[in-house]
Amino acid sequence: MNRLLKLMRLTKHKEERSLHPFWVLVGKEIADHIRSWRFIILLLLILLTCVGSLYTSISNITKAVAKPDDPDGGFLFLKLFTLSDGSLPPFHVFIGFLGPLLGISLGFDAINSEQNAGTLSRVMAQPIHRDYLLNAKFTGALLVISTLFFALGFLVMGLGLIIIGIPPSAQEFMRIIFFIVLSILYVAFWLNLSILFSVKFQQAATSALTAIAVWLFFTVFYQIIISVVAKAMMPADTGNPYQMMSYQKFIMGLLSIVPSQLYSDATTTLLMPSVRSLGPLTMEQVYGAIPSPLPLRESLIIVWPQLTGLIAATVLCFALSYYTFMRKEIKSR
Amino acid sequence: MSQHIIELEGLTKQYGTLTAVNNLDLTINKGEIYGLLGPNGAGKSTTIRMMLGLTEPSAGTVKVCGIDSTVNPIEVKRRVGYLPDNVGFYDNRTGLENLLFIARLNRATDAEAHARATELLARVGLADAANKKAGAYSRGMRQRLGLADVLIKKPEVIILDEPTLGIDPSGVREFLHLIVQLSREEGLTVLLSSHHLHQVQQVCDRVGIFVGGQLLANGDIPTLAKQLFTGDAFIIEVGVDFAQPDLAEAQKQQLQQTLEGIAGVSSVQIAGGRFRLGCAADITALIARTIVKAKVDLTYLSKKEYGLDDIYQRYFEGEQVYEQIA
Prior knowledge:
Chain A is mostly helical. Chain A has one domain (20-327). Chain A has helices at 2-12, 21-35, 37-66, 79-82, 91-107, 112-117, 119-124, 130-164, 170-200, 204-233, 241-255, 259-271, 283-286, 296-327. The longest helix of chain A has 35 residues, at 130-164. Chain A starts with a helix and ends in a 6-residue tail after the last helix. Chain B is an alpha/beta fold. Chain B folds into two domains: 4-219, Rossmann fold; 234-323, Alpha-Beta Plaits, CATH 3.30.70. Chain B has helices at 44-51, 73-79, 95-105, 110-123, 139-151, 169-186, 197-203, 221-228, 248-261, 284-293, 308-316, 320-323; strands at 4-15, 18-29, 33-37, 59-64, 67-68, 80-83, 157-161, 189-194, 206-211, 214-219, 234-241, 265-271, 274-279, 297-305. A six-stranded mixed β-sheet of chain B has the order 6-7-8-3-9-10, with helices on both faces. In chain B, strands 2-1-4-5 form a four-stranded antiparallel β-sheet, covered by helices on one side. In chain B, strand 7 (157-161), helix 6 (169-186) and strand 8 (189-194) form a beta-alpha-beta unit. In chain B, helix 5 (139-151) packs parallel to helix 6 (169-186). Mean pLDDT of chain B is 83; it is low at 318-326. The interface between A and B is medium-sized, with 30 and 35 residues.
């Protein structure tokens, strides 16, 4: 009843309505991010690489058009995001590389900086639920990332449209949208991981270094370990095909633990419609197949495991940091 | 509605094997200024955090404004303003922005928040610094901003944890004066924690002495003195000089008997050539007269009243000091 009354009062004086505390916190987070130097620097870096990769793809696009037997030939617009002459990686690889850095930089000091500045206990003394703060940290950063990526994606599309003069088809447009959503999801994973570290570790430097260490481990060392394992387990040349298959599957399984692998698999499939499978294919499966692009739905079905894997990893990190934060004792400084 | 605005019953907090707060019972009345006095690590901050529901008690109940802090911390935090020790502000925002942020978290509309923030900044003497970055504030200014920050939600109770830490003496006086003034004008209940007894003595209506997680004494300062030093509210120290050194011992005995005979003197002890007399009332003049009448030279006379200092000393720094006389 009280609520209803409040609601009525609120609707009566619409211009006087106060913002829900959660959105106040989110607003503060967003303001903090876009005013911070580290975000501006990363933004410049991403813009620069974006322009660079756009430049290489546009300067090479004429060669790509000339290839008559390319199954992706019909998707000229998508080539803006994937084409490269080898001197500079294409756009999606850049995002795969810089995305984690962006996520980590937005989250690594989320909670511990508030704790060290003594503002955590001040905010917690206000009539808000404790999880608002953590959720607001995540939501704020996610909104910033989403805005950034959508802006970048549309910027590339717009520039490409002006320069090459060919509009994207509806399918291409949808593929790009899915690619952007996937990129946001990927960055969200790293964001959550770094928020988890910021709850766990008292010092911002420790949490930043730990997050970067995890990132480096997965991008550099994990691959090395996998190749060592792969070499040791390689079946003999004369091994039967089933053994060969299970070996391949095992190695693929090991690789798919890595978030960056999930991301690059998924983006490749989305941006190159001719990719039919991410695993090994037998001759029977390939036999008779016409090398033609897949419709969007099929591509999405192929990347579904990757997508759910990324979401699961993100949710897991968030759940862990949520649990830790709720149990944490709020001390002043 | 009872007059008790804060009620703690059997409150206990354990960290592993360490008991930070041990079976604490405390009630604080509406409108009073209560001082929680104790050395560092006595469990003052833990108690305060439990009052706000920031820390869960291991046992016992906390009720603030009749609401259980453990069960419904949001409602409690709506009514209670809390200034943590070492309060922090967003250094890259101005003082005004910091206040507005907290006001909005308390669901104030923009216009309301702005009006109240400006008024409070003027009140605590920061009107000129309102648009300066909080990072550029001095220690004293930060504490005053903290006070404004606490008041912006129009609380019924304010809890200040070590509010005067690190401010210079004149700043402390000003700050405490401000607290008293605000409390009297707006009918606020104030709970002040400190290890600095003089400040507590200056402003508090009642004081609780809190050591090792336990409330050792509770009440206004005269009551505390009475509670702790049964009977002997005054100690008078007398130094005498005997004319004939060879007869000194006998004369000393005699003088002691004479002094013990005075009505109101409850004990006489000799320590280092001086007499220490425990008295229930201030009878310094009578003692001096008696000594002079006994034809002994009076060389030293000092009256000692029990202040919070002595109480403090007695509890925090061991009891040897007054064992001789008690």
